[in-house]
């Protein structure tokens, strides 16, 4: 559908931000980089005036649980001065509770009764075939992760018992047991001591730490920060007023200190509709329960099964804020409605988030807001990014099958990750794999080579260009290249307008790059720099609009970062490393000349300057057939990364060759061993006597182990082996 902003060129945009309780992973990267690409296109390419608001969820059941768990385990670890029978008993009890809670139906089916002793875990593990039983994975989404945690705790428990039996009870052994069993110990400690966690600073400190960590990751991924950042903890009073207005309008009710949205009272009243985007999911008990949070176990006060919490009365061990209904905290969904509306008003152009937020989160946001303002459309356009999968499973903090952004950036650059996401498209799911990343790396290299070649050739040709020839006419190759550029512009623009179809736009970009690269193969004497420069500048413009190139770059062609220097860099910092390298080269040449060196040694010095010294400084020299070198300025980090990748691939090839050679040698030795056996004995070995019971005078079997004559075909094959 056409995009029609409410106020001309101004666009209001609210994006669901992270719940900050752990490290950000590649699922977050796909979501926020994809949304950043769309934002940049709207701002930098289409020229919209955006106001982007994003929230930080710093009050949430997951944050509360994580804070308590980390605090209680840390306290417990500090008290574990030695490995003791009590510590072993505690971990055993925690394991029993954990297993019975994680796999209640499966434990009952496999064992007939709940796990009562830690050693019962061994029987359960055997019953589920060491975690390989399909029934385990089918029992719940998190079953395999929980099984691994319980099994690790049990193995640590067995090792701890052996240590005690051997008279070893060091603090290091105690800490090792606690650390390995943390996942099973934490809920066990929480069940007993949660009410003792009363310091509100603990909750604030955890969320503040992970918020800063998230922001650092986004900066590393070149994601623009929102114009306005909101935190739930800073908007509690606004949320209370928002909830009260919903109550006053007749769409919510208070019960035992909590406030619930009344879905039945809303749906169908005054033209209101519940679950506009997900009619099929609106009665999903699983999704409804997940939307309420892990600490919201109290359902007796709810009037309807689909009703959801706007305000939660706080229990001991939970942070609380004052409200007309008693001390409590905001529900999950209400925070976005209140904060977005407080900043952007009663009607918003764009709302973004991951596809998993459609129901119940975004549906509940909509009905809350429409109930508060008595309107029928709080958001005009929802944009939901797809899931990122790894090994076929959705990447998730709660599933613990995630690759953190920091770990990914140790292996790949931010530009390479963004390239992958551009090739995938924001609304499609993505399977994060080495194969996909290899393609992204290859495309980034293609673009980098194009930029450096085009920039260097344009610079050299402009410098060497003779005065304009009035009789010169544009040749057919230039006309074709300009026509291809015009076509690429049209294709990219059409793709961008078609729901930000970046895969199609990238195909058009790569096509014009390939055409221009082919044109450059004509040689310097046959190249017109102007169309090449036009193509390179256009590709640079689109790459900047996609967030691939440096925003602050002053260079008209290329990524705009690295060895070319940044705006404001002083001349000494920029020139001194290269000048020093050239000075060292001059010294070596003089020394060689004075010593009467030969031509071969001089060329070796030149090669060293080209292949080793200058690349480290971001300068690449390409030798051309016409005897003139092409000088290119490239980010030295890219050169190092490419070299490391090449070396890693070479090492992998060498390892594969070594393994192949080893297998060949083992096969050769095995054949030599066989060759030591006389032909008449080859079918009389102990292994063969289990297969045959009679032999002829040459030693060839005639009967099988049961005394039956061998078939003609089998006898013929044995005779062939004998020969």
TrEMBL record:
Known EC number: 6.1.1.16
Domain of life: Eukaryota
Enzyme class: ligase
Keywords for this protein: Ligase
Stated name of the protein: Cysteinyl-tRNA synthetase
């Amino acid at each position: 559908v056409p995009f029609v902003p409410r106020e001309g060129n101004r666009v209001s945009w609210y994006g669901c931000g992270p719940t900050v309780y752990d490290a950000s992973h590649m699922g977050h990267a796909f979501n926020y980089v994809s949304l950043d690409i769309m934002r940049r296109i709207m701002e930098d390419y289409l020229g919209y005036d955006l106001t982007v608001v994003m929230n930080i969820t710093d009050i949430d059941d997951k944050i509360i649980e994580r804070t308590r768990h980390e605090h209680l385990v840390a306290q417990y670890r500090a008290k574990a001065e030695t490995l003791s029978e009590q510590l072993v008993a505690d971990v055993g009890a925690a394991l029993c509770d954990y297993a019975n809670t994680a796999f209640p139906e499966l434990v009952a089916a496999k064992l007939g009764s709940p796990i009562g002793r830690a050693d019962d875990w061994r029987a359960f593990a055997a019953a589920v075939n060491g975690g390989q039983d399909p029934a385990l994975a089918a029992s719940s989404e998190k079953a395999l992760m929980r099984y691994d945690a319980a099994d690790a705790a049990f193995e640590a428990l067995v090792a701890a018992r052996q240590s005690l039996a051997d008279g070893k009870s060091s603090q290091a052994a105690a800490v090792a047991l606690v650390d390995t069993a943390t996942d099973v110990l934490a809920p066990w400690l929480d069940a007993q001591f949660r009410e003792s966690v009363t310091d509100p600073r603990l909750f604030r400190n955890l969320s503040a730490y992970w918020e800063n960590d998230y922001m650092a990751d986004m900066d590393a991924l070149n994601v623009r920060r929102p114009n306005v950042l909101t935190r739930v903890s800073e908007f509690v009073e606004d949320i209370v007023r928002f909830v009260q207005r919903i109550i006053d309008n007749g769409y919510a009710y208070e019960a035992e200190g909590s406030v619930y949205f009344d879905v039945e009272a809303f749906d169908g009243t005054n033209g209101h509709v519940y679950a506009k985007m997900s009619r099929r999911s609106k009665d999903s008990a699983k999704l409804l329960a997940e939307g309420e949070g892990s600490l919201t176990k109290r359902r007796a006060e709810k009037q309807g099964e689909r009703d959801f919490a706007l305000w939660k009365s706080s229990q001991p061990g939970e942070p609380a804020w004052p409200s007309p209904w008693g001390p409590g905290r905001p529900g999950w969904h209400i925070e976005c409605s209140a904060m977005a509306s407080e900043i952007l008003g009663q009607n918003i152009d764009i709302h973004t988030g991951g596809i998993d937020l459609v129901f119940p989160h975004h549906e509940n946001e909509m009905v809350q807001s429409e109930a508060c303002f008595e309107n029928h459309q709080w958001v005009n356009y929802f944009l939901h990014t797809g899931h990122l999968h790894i090994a076929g499973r959705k990447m998730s903090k709660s599933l613990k099958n995630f690759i953190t952004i920091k770990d990914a950036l140790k292996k790949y650059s931010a530009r390479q990750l963004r390239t992958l996401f551009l090739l995938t498209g924001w609304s499609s799911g993505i399977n994060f794999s080495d194969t996909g990343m290899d393609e992204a790396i290859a495309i980034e290299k293609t673009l980098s080579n194009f930029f450096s070649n085009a920039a260097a050739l344009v610079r050299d040709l402009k410098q060497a260009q003779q005065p304009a020839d009035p009789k010169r006419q544009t040749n057919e190759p230039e006309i074709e290249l300009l026509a291809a550029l015009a076509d690429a512009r049209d294709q990219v623009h059409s793709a961008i307008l078609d729901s930000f179809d970046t895969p199609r736009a990238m195909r058009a970009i790569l096509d014009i790059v390939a055409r221009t690269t082919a044109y450059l193969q004509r040689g310097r004497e046959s190249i017109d720099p102007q169309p090449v420069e036009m193509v390179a500048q256009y590709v640079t413009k689109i790459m900047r609009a996609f967030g691939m190139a440096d925003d602050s770059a002053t260079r008209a062609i290329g990524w705009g970062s690295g060895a070319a220097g940044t705006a404001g860099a002083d001349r000494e910092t920029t020139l001194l490393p290269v000048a020093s390298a050239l000075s060292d080269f001059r010294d070596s040449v003089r020394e060689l000349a004075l010593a009467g060196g030969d031509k071969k040694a001089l060329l070796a010095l030149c090669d060293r300057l080209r292949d080793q010294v200058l690349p480290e400084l971001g300068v690449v020299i390409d030798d051309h057939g016409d005897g003139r070198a092409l000088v290119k300025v490239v980010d030295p980090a890219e050169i190092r990364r490419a070299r490391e990748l090449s070396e890693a691939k070479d090492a992998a090839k060498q390892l594969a060759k070594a393994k192949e050679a080893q297998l060949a040698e083992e096969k050769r030795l095995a054949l030599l061993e066989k060759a030591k056996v006389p032909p008449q004995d080859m079918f009389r070995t102990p292994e063969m006597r289990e297969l045959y019971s009679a032999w002829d005078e040459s030693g060839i079997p005639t009967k099988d182990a049961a005394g039956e004559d061998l078939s003609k075909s089998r006898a013929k094959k044995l005779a062939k082996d004998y020969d």
